[in-house]
Amino acid sequence: MGPEAVIEVAGLTRRFGSFTAVQQVSFSVRAGEIFGFLGANGAGKSTTIRILCGLLAPSEGHACVAGIDVARDPEAVKRSIGYMSQKFSLYLDLTAEENLEFFGGAYGLGRRALRQRGRELLARVGLRERSAEITGRLPGGMRQRLALAAAMLHRPRILFLDEPTSGVDPRARQSFWALIREAAREGVTVFVTTHAMDEAEFCDRIGLMADGRLRALDTPDGLKRSFLPGEMFHLELSPDRSIDALASQPGVLRIESAGAAYRLRVEAGRFDPEKLRALLGPAAVRVERVEPDLEDVFLEVVTQARGEAVP
Amino acid sequence: MGTGLSGLMAVMRKELRQTFRDRRMVAILIMAPLIQTVVLGYAVDLDVDAVPTVVCDRDQSPASRALVQEYLAGGTFRLVGRAAEPADAERWLDRGDAAVALILERGLGERLRAGQAASVQVFIDGSDSNRALVAMSASTQFFVGRAARLSQERLSWLERLQGRSLAVPRLTLEPRIMYNPRLSSPRYMVPGVAAFLLLLVTTLLTAMGIARERELGTLEQILVTPLSPMALLTGKCLPFAFLGLIDVAGLVAIGALLFDVPMRGPLWLVFAGTLVYLLTTLGIGILISTVSRTQQQAMLGALFFMLPALLLSGFATPIGNMPGWLQPITYLNPMRYFVEFMRGCLIRGSGLAELWPKLLVLLVFGLSVLGLGALRFRKRLA
After folding, report:
1. Which residues from chain A sit within 8 angstroms of residue B226, using beta carbons?
2. Residues above pLDDT 90, as percent of chain B
3. In CATH, what is the architecture of A229-291?
4. What torsion do the CA atoms of B220, B222, B226, B230 make, to the nearest 10 degrees?
């Protein structure tokens, strides 16, 4: 057995009227893990996270966070977790420092402890020089880092981050993920939702949500292996040429179009770039072997889920 | 183990910072009520004097001239012109250049001297009912007084003529208006203005303040902290309650300095009553916030409550003048009790012994509304 599970979810369901946002979701997250929750908008990620934070009561099922049943004692859960919601939710008319002071007070931190912890976190997220600035005047990336600092003030064991990097430029994203990894190294469990597949690669394990159900759960490599067996090729064809010649070949598993380019998945060992060139003839502009990425996994999972949904 | 006190302090500090950082907000909270009191105090001055008057003296005798002069001397009527014919005088009224026309017929002096009955006509423009009423009662008072004097003069003359005294029974009315002897309307208005401005400031700000946190998502961020809903509500309300007390202090000072409000009652009672009233206004603000998703909805909700509360409080128009079916409804209006309380305390100089029933009603209102608001607030979060 690995390290203890800090989040345990079994048969979790949440309905809003006749709409089921989360359906029979079960998983567990180990201490110190970066657990990614992937899915399109409306797949049930935020609802799950809000149940785990004690903001929403589950309709059915159980959720234990830090050993506490969230439905039974949501107040006790709040002390062990930090939460960053999808929407920026600090006060834009307060300075960075005043925001930390307020949330520190809300967590019951004493004045001295708060001042020290605030300084430490502001330095860590790179906001020491701008701590006296009004939050509304800070650029988006800094605001997100400030929100992370606010969520970490009380040294939570678990961090719930709901789309923390949405609307932030790529460089700011990188520095944000560096902070997430740093927290994880210190033993904080990070539960993060995203729909950016490149970010998902940074996660230790990933849960894939589609239509309120957890469709897959594994490490990024494990997901690729189980959902995308075989080999992947990236093809570019000259315009107006069809890829139909390949579709009927034995051993071709799937062809996804992405604009003028295609992603081709085939059984292992049956094709190589030369053979594909020969098959496509002069239409082939570019043919190369590629590693599958999580985008491919996600498309595959969603396609399979659709297939199940339509009997 | 709770974060009760430190959380409460944090919320209060945050509210004060946010409020005072916004200069316009400070202006709205402190300056606006004071300016409004001054404006409302002067604008709703219901006192009537210098009513524009046109005189048509067709007699032109010493007696008629004396009558006109005395009629105008009281200050209620101000001469704006003279008319040769009653028809001309009526035209003055039609044009709105005069509100009262005094018509003295030819031969008036002659008839009076001869001991005969004579009549005087007064036309009054009734489109402003309050002014018409005042003009009417001033005219009545004047001419009844003159008539009594004329009879008295006649009587003395008869007595001298017959060499014996003639006893005639006489009844005189001696009205004495208590507490507000000059019937000054700002005195009557200032307590009502205080009640309204407190409602405006505290209810609106509380409702919008909570709705804003909900709208911006900061409420959700607070909800994942162990901060209790009670600490959150208390921390949000206390600064507004404090501002309300400052506003009342300013209002009372303006009332005393500019409008001569007598300030008869004990000051501590004014503030104690205000505090009790604030329970209600803050509670209503919280209640409104629980049914609004956005600041705009909260603002409209607050207005929806405030206007009827204002009109049914007896703030400017006496509740006794309202239609019979409407009057009982005013008992459900907390503002009514506060207006009455303030009038009692500031103008009549009543103390706790007389005013405790109103305070008790306000306290019951306040505690129930506040309790209901807090309960609904907590429920909506869950």
Report:
1. 75, 78-79, 106-108
2. 27
3. 2-Layer Sandwich (3.30)
4. -100
